[in-house]
Amino acid sequence: MDKMTQMETKLDDTEKELTELKSITQGIFTATVKGVYFFRFTMFNNLNSTPNSVLILRKNEEQIVTLWDVSATDGNDTGSNAAVLSLEAGDTVHVELSPNRQVYDDQAHYNTFTGFLLFTI
Question: Where is the C1q domain (predicted)?
């Protein structure tokens, strides 16, 4: 392999790593293999003047399930939702906070988004 090919390969690998890192830090899961996956997300809403916390789990841009919490006089609340999804390689899954809504978080990390492959198909 000549030096130019080695440099191009190294740049391709670096670009791929940066793309994967961007996806991870933005909370976007990208399926690498066709299969059935499990996803779960949890949110925390403290007593606040904001009327609702609303989260949406999306496969690509399709809404799959939602999670709502209405602020009231009952104090801090937490909620979770989950889905089992059939994904093609390249499909993405992410959690979206609805406009003009909020969730509460601090160093305890109350809000989570997790998922894993159940089996390939």
Answer: 1-121
